[in-house]
Amino acid sequence: MATCFVPTHVRSATPVVETDHERTITERDAFARFADCVADFDVSSVDLHPDHAQQAPAQTLVAPETATRTKSPLARVRGAYRDSVMSVPHYDEEYDDSLLESLTGEFSPEVAAAVLTNDQLTPHLRDRLIDATHQARESRHALLQGLNNERTALEATNENLTRLGADLDDVLSAQSFHTWTGEELATARECIHARQQECDQLAADRQATLQKQRIPSTHHIDHEFTQYLYESLPVTYPVLTDITSLVGTLRTAQHGVERALNARNSEP
């Protein structure tokens, strides 16, 4: 089967999705480890709201078998965050944030300030940290679902466009259609038209999908899903770009066939 069209942008997008999928799993698991670490700390019955941290002694939080006089509970929390979330292999390449920037982006400015400016971890702050960490983990889980859907869409698009762009070499390379019968030209025209209609439907379906896509509120992701996902590629919409390219190829083929048919019909 001769093929004159290759969905190059879709094929370039596939490894991008695979990489982001792998990194998202790594981040999700890192947040899970951090949450487990924070949850392992024991607290006494005395609580202190972070808003009052400067007015009263904060409740000391002791880690079983690891508490020392030289390392405060929040220092251990900061260390755990560095050793989990900030230690994923792609952290520097993807984010390169300071501890303050990461905590602020993932949790909130208030939580980041409380973690960085105090020594003692209150039960209230511990609960806020655990809740925020679970939210960060869930946002990665939601992103994974979107990436799975995108991967499936890319696979289907590659298959469909490869099929629709196949067996056009004879039409596109023909310098003259004088050897083609009228029936052959009519069949070619119908085939090309049917492929154009399929492309139009693929484009409409993709547009509908893009309208529904929402990116979870993950760290540093505050724009459209495809803009986030494909910022390293020369095009933001690889599927639509390749569909449009194939439509142009089909139109070129159609024009050649139409001219040949018109010339044939005008012959005496």
Automatic annotation (TrEMBL):
Record-annotated DUF7260 domain positions: 8-254
Pfam family, one: DUF7260
Protein name stated in the entry: DUF7260 domain-containing protein
